[in-house]
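About this split. The held-out portion is used to measure sequence recovery: a designer receives only the structure tokens and must propose an amino acid at every position. Recovery is the fraction of positions where the proposal matches the reference. Here is one held-out target exactly as it appears in the evaluation file.
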């Protein structure tokens, strides 16, 4: 065995304290004040407690107690706190925080903190690698995890896959590549009067607006296209918009099809959109941050036909692949497009080999090993377990929908396309249903048995649960109906009394 190798076993030689005879560095004050194993054991106990508490729903969300409030008001500490005490403080703080992995957390599009992913994060942080440049085996892990996720969602495995901090950065990165493809001189010269356009449905995620703003295209370059009754982009409107821009001398930079909108889970008609793009030579990006993992489930795969034709796609593994944040993957079909977008040659990064540095293909410099959690999760559980969990969430969304439709005081927005099911409480006698449902969402949050947020669809306020948690049981999912009706009835009653 190579004598320089780290002993890979926990509890191995030299785990506690510095080796005998070594000189103490000035940073000795940054060493733990207890044995490393004791600190790790305390952290493990906290994590174990959290996981046990995530196994079942919590009857309520605890308020922030006085001790924690006090703790969070102290100024910069000069003196040390014993690590075990500080860990206990952290345990209280986290317990009094809103944790998305809880099985009745249905707000926004949550993440569920997959346990093996948490372990992977601890391991990756311990080695604190930087994948800006070649990090040997870790760089190969990132590439392999990229190929795996591409295969999982049906995208060519020889694409370039960059792990990023989230769908927002993935979308910005992909659209940067699209801009470079359509307007190759802009990187050097700026937009300098060039008029360009990006197309998406009006329900696309705000990160697309952010991307066009940051890429210098300007928010006015975004064509927010109409949606059909199921809130999918209308392809004819897309074709007309591109053609009108071409006639006006405006350069179409990219079309963004959303594979699972944040608002309702709608999947744009990707294959038809791909036809329109290829006929006109326009870059197609598929924002699958939320919904694309459902392409792996046979019942829903037809919704995603055409994804393999896209120039770029993105998937947030920290959404529907269950791993902890942050972990998004931006995939670009031709690696050269990313290199043309991000490639550079700074003096502090000597290049003595043909291979590109990762920073020549991505936005960030310091790049942690975000891919390990996905790699370890797929290796530990196998892809089939992920497909089964996603299929389970899809089934729960349908179950929830079917149950909601049984009640006269509830109204559902639409049949679920994926796992977002907006619905609202419509009790008799309440005139302002929008304000009623807005207040109901806040009341449910205050009550704390479940967590859901409101959203506005065509000016109407809905409660908007999304089911993307592998921990949620059918009982958890259906509990939201009882809670919404119970609290909604109370709210309506109080309102009636006040008016009367
Ligand atoms: C469709 C879609 N795209 C992009 C994003 C942004 O992802 P992130 O929050 O990881 O930046 C979201 C977030 O919900 C999303 O639903």
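Reference sequence for scoring:
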């Amino acid at each position: 065995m190579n004598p320089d190798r780290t002993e890979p076993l926990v509890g191995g030689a030299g785990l506690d304290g510095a080796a005998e005879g070594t000189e103490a560095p000035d940073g000795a004050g940054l060493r733990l004040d207890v044995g490393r194993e004791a600190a790790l054991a305390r952290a493990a106990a906290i994590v174990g407690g959290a996981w046990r508490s995530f196994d079942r729903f919590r009857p309520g969300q605890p308020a922030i107690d006085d001790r924690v409030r006090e703790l969070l008001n102290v100024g910069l500490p000069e003196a040390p706190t014993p690590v075990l005490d500080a860990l206990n403080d952290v345990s209280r703080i986290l317990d009094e925080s809103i944790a998305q992995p809880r099985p009745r957390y249905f707000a926004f599009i949550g993440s569920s903190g997959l346990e093996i992913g948490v372990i992977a994060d601890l391991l990756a942080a311990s080695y604190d690698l930087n994948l800006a440049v070649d990090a040997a085996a870790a760089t190969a892990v990132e590439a392999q995890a990229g190929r795996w996720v591409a295969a999982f969602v049906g995208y060519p495995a020889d694409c370039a896959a960059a792990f990023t901090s989230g769908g927002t950065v993935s979308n910005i990165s992909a659209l940067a590549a699209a801009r470079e493809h359509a307007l190759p001189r802009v990187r050097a010269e700026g937009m300098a009067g060039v008029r360009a356009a990006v197309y998406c449905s009006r329900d696309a995620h705000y990160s697309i607006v952010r991307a066009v703003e940051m890429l210098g295209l300007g928010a006015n370059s975004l064509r927010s296209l109409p949606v059909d009754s199921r809130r999918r982009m209308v392809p004819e409107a897309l074709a007309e918009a591109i053609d009108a821009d071409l006639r006006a001398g405006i350069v179409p930079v990219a079309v963004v099809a959303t594979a699972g909108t944040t608002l309702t889970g709608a999947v744009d008609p990707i294959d038809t959109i791909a036809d329109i793009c290829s006929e006109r030579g326009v870059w197609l990006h598929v924002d699958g941050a939320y919904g694309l993992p459902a392409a792996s489930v046979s019942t829903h795969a037809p919704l995603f036909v055409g994804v393999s034709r896209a120039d770029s796609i993105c998937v947030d593994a920290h959404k529907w692949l269950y791993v902890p944040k942050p972990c998004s993957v931006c995939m670009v079909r031709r690696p050269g497009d990313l290199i043309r977008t991000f490639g550079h040659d700074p003096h502090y990064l000597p290049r003595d080999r043909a291979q590109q540095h990762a920073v020549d293909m991505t936005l960030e410099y310091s790049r942690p090993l975000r891919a390990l959690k996905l790699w370890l999760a797929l290796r530990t559980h196998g892809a089939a377990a992920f497909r089964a969990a996603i299929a389970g969430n899809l089934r729960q969304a349908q179950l929830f929908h079917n149950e909601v439709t049984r009640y006269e005081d509830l109204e559902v927005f639409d049949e679920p396309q994926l796992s977002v099911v907006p619905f609202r409480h419509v009790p008799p006698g309440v005139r302002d249903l929008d304000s009623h449902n807005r207040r109901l969402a806040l009341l449910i949050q205050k009550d704390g048995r479940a967590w859901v947020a409101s959203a506005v669809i065509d000016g109407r306020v809905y409660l908007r649960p999304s089911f993307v948690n592998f921990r949620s049981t059918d009982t958890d999912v259906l509990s939201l109906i009882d809670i919404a009706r119970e609290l909604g009835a109370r709210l309506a009653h109080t309102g009636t009394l006040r008016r009367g």
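Annotator remark: The pocket of pyridoxal-5'-phosphate is lined by residues 109, 166-168, 171, 205, 207, 258, 262, 287, 289-290, 316, 328 (CB under 6 Å).
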